[in-house]
Amino acid sequence: MEEERYRVLRERMVDQQIRLEVRDARVLAAMRAVPRHRFVPECERAFAYDNRPLPLACGQTISQPLMVALMLEAARLEGPERVLEVGAGSGYQAAVLGRLAARVVAVERLPELAESAAAALRDVGIGNVEVVTGDGSLGWPPGAPYDRILVAAGGHEVPDALVEQLAPGGVLVIPVGGRTEQTLTVVTKGADGSVLVRNHGPCAFVPLIGAAGWPDASV
Ligand code: SAH
Question: Which of 9, 26, 147, 218 has the fewest CB atoms nearer than 10 Å to its CB?
Answer without folding.
Answer: 218
